[in-house]
Specification:
- The chain is 81% helix and 0% strand.
- By secondary structure, the protein is mainly alpha-helical.
- The chain has one domain.
- The chain starts with a helix and ends with a helix.
């Protein structure tokens, strides 16, 4: 990897980590959306995994309340595992451009609907938690995006912004670890990838730190508007990646 590409990768890590620290989501999806402009996706997805685990862990520590969230959403978190296996199996045997396009369009429309003032209210139960976990895992394995449909579901529940951030990042961490194992089995993880990812932890830490400072000062309505806007932008990025 040449020096210009390395600089772009580290700048992308910082920007995505800043968004992650501010809104609690978007690291992997925003990284991949930007990297699609200068890297092959089969090279970009493994690069993002290790910084994604770090960014998720840092945000989880900052948000607090890990064990109560783990107990509350245990069915959803466990259900992501078979979903991830299914998504990775499909990824290994076919192109993901069409699913990525559909996912990007749904995210773009959902983000716009939320900014327009749409409100979705649901009640949590084990059956819905399980279904959301399986679908989220499958979408993640196939496209590299970790936020659909888990984020709209969590935003429809009666939880605070810190609880939402903790729940979504617990799911992200679990998914990222499983993705790393799956990508390695597909032969997509190299020594160079691991080295670049390890060095990239520095801009990731700085971005998370800066963004988390901003999140603490955001009122609840402003926080949710930022999340909706980010969902729409990430969806647009996925649409661009599908055509790239």
């Amino acid at each position: 990897m040449d020096s210009l590409t390395l600089a772009l990768v580290f700048a992308t890590f910082f920007f995505a980590a800043f968004l992650k620290g501010t809104a609690g989501l978007g690291f992997a999806t925003s990284c991949l959306g930007i990297m699609a402009a200068y890297l092959d996706m089969r090279q970009a997805i493994p690069l993002v995994i290790i910084p994604s685990v770090l960014s998720n862990t840092l945000v989880m520590i900052d948000a607090g309340g890990f064990l109560p969230i783990l107990r509350r959403f245990k069915f959803m978190l466990l259900a992501t595992l078979p979903g991830l296996a299914l998504g990775l199996w499909i990824l290994g045997g076919s192109s993901s451009s069409v699913p990525r396009l559909v996912l990007g369009a749904s995210m773009f429309l959902y983000g716009g609907w939320g900014l327009w003032g749409g409100v979705l209210q649901l009640r949590q139960n084990p059956l819905v938690d399980t279904a959301v976990g399986v679908v989220t895992g499958a979408v993640n394995g196939l496209t590299g995006s970790q936020i659909m449909p888990i984020l709209p579901y969590l935003m429809s529940l009666d939880i605070t912004k810190d609880q939402l951030v903790q729940a979504i990042n617990t799911s992200f961490t679990l998914s990222s670890v499983i993705m790393l194992v799956g990508l390695n089995r597909l032969g997509l993880v190299s020594t160079e990838t691991l080295i670049v990812s390890a060095v990239g932890l520095v801009p990731v830490f700085l971005g998370i730190y800066t963004g988390s400072k901003i999140r603490r000062r955001l009122p609840e309505p402003a926080f949710r508007q930022i999340v909706f806007a980010l969902i729409g932008l990430l969806g647009l990025g996925l649409i661009v990646r599908a055509f790239a």
